[in-house]
Amino acid sequence: xxxxxxxxxxxxxxxxxxxxxxxxxxxxxxxxxxxxxxxxxxxxxxxxxxxxxxxxxxxxxxxxxxxxxxxxxxxxxxxxxxxxxxxxxxxxxxxxxxxxxxxxxxxxxxxxxxxxxxxxxxxxxxxxxxxxxxxxxxxxxxxxxxxxxxxxxxxxxxxxxxxxxxxxxxxxxxxxxxxxxxxxxxxxxxxxxxxxxxxxxxxxxxxxxxxxxxxxxxxxxxxxxxxxxxxxxxxxxxxxxxxxxxxxxxxxxxxxxxxxxxxxxxxxxxxxxxxxxxxxxxxxxxxxxxxxxxxxxxxxxxxxxxxxxxxxxxxxxxxxxxxxxxxxxxxxxxxxxxxxxxxxxxxxxxxxxxxxxxxxxxxxxxxx
Amino acid sequence: xxxxxxxxxxxxxxxxxxxxxxxxxxxxxxxxxxxxxxxxxxxxxxxxxxxxxxxxxxxxxxxxxxxxxxxxxxxxxxxxxxxxxxxxxxxxxxxxxxxxxxxxxxxxxxxxxxxxxxxxxxxxxxxxxxxxxxxxxxxxxxxxxxxxxxxxxxxxxxxxxxxxxxxxxxxxxxxxxxxxxxxxxxxxxxxxxxxxxxxxxxxxxxxxxxxxxxxxxxxxxxx
Lengths: 368, 223
Description:
The structure holds two protein chains of two kinds. In chain A, 22% of the residues lie in helices and 36% in strands. By secondary structure, chain A is an alpha+beta fold. Chain A folds into two domains: 3-232, Rossmann fold; 247-366, CATH 2.40.50.100. In chain A, a hairpin with a 2-residue loop joins β18 (325-332) and β19. Chain A starts with a helix and ends with a strand. Chain B is mainly alpha-helical. Chain B has a single domain, classed as MetI-like fold (Orthogonal Bundle), CATH 1.10.3720. Chain B has helices spanning 4-37, 43-55, 58-69, 74-81, 91-117, 120-127, 132-143, 145-160, 164-170, 180-189, 193-221. Classes of the chains: A alpha+beta, B mainly alpha. The A-B interface holds A 57-59, 84-87, 90-92, 94, 98, 100-102, 111-112, 115-116, 143, 157-158, 161 and B 120-121, 123-131, 134, 138-139, 142-143, 223.
């Protein structure tokens, strides 16, 4: 382990190095993940994110690999160590429904549970059932469940083994938008209620924005970037920032509300951010998303504007990767924001690194 | 009506088919599992050997088994050294012959059932802490159950219908190796057509019922 990695997540994190070559594809990944929260493996299909996840599970045998999870070594080919999948205390949720068709929902849930020693059970079956809201389904056979219900049972089944690591391979990819919306709140509850680190494979930015604390960006079997979500998303050297839907997330506290105009005031890094609606309870920790295209820049704080949120900002860097458009990375308080403006405006305003100006935020979406 | 000899032949046939099917399920399961899962270079060769009885004349199988199990064959010398005597012209010899003769009828349905299960349920079981043997009994066996039913029924029925191999290695010894098909042959040889009819019609009805049940189950029960 490199000293830097050891310092990053001392003793409690996940350290992985895998090398694997197939005809037409090679995985060569080294990464450190935090020992808690959700880490998203993000990339296009073929980027190696599922293969990497399968290596973590031991379902794929990397020829040259090292894996330690919270201080326990699961694989170290240099020393001939390879713990087979069924001896690893992990949970795995596959992309498509993977319930055993010959067992009822209840017996599917018990399948893993009864193979875990009583002393190692930390998540009770009842807790897993309640967390995923599947109590009414227990007596049914898998063929009588909808896609979303199946996936909730599969997640509960994995949780019931009290895993020390939960691996999820695009668990929502096979579902339509409505089913996705049905499951996402359950995933968020997992995040909030259980101390189990989750590695979540996704190619959908909106899922990453809602769930992830840490993001690993993969391309062609290599790790392009790995870091906290609010550090990785605003990086101008990565493809996130150049996406049409580029965004940053802001973790903030609900600090106040304006009942008359139905507005809620969030606070991040000492700055206010107003959002419409009164849904979030006072004092709650929330996550908001700000799209790069919803942020414009002004040289003066213009009070006559209809825009609610005007924040003092400092330009960090610029990038005009696509014709006519310029991406500006800003420091706003202790957070990074992205603004996408036309290159003509950037030139006319003379925007340059180090410049102080104002960011006008046209839209803020509450994610959770 | 049927004679005592006819009834003895029927009983012997059913015994032979039952013992053969039981043995085939035990040895056919690992062979089928291996064929369904292996990436070994020997897969093709083993698969071909298993399928040989489908195309070879039963007399060929019988002939070579006779040589192998006879006093000068390696198997014969081995059984003699063990004090078991010789297998040809005994019930045990018939069982050995039938196991070879019906092997593909058991192995192939099992292999197809195992292949149809695919990799995923095995991986799911592994992530739920089940080892290989545990997975085989708790996941593979229940999911492959229709394949086992097909294999057992076909193995049994095919053994009941065997003639050439029996004649080659079993001869025609009443109550020891004289099965229904041989008994029919004897009746016809002796021009006892009425007796031959009883047994032959019985075979037709039995075979029809077996295949009818198998096919109607397949249509309705596939899940």
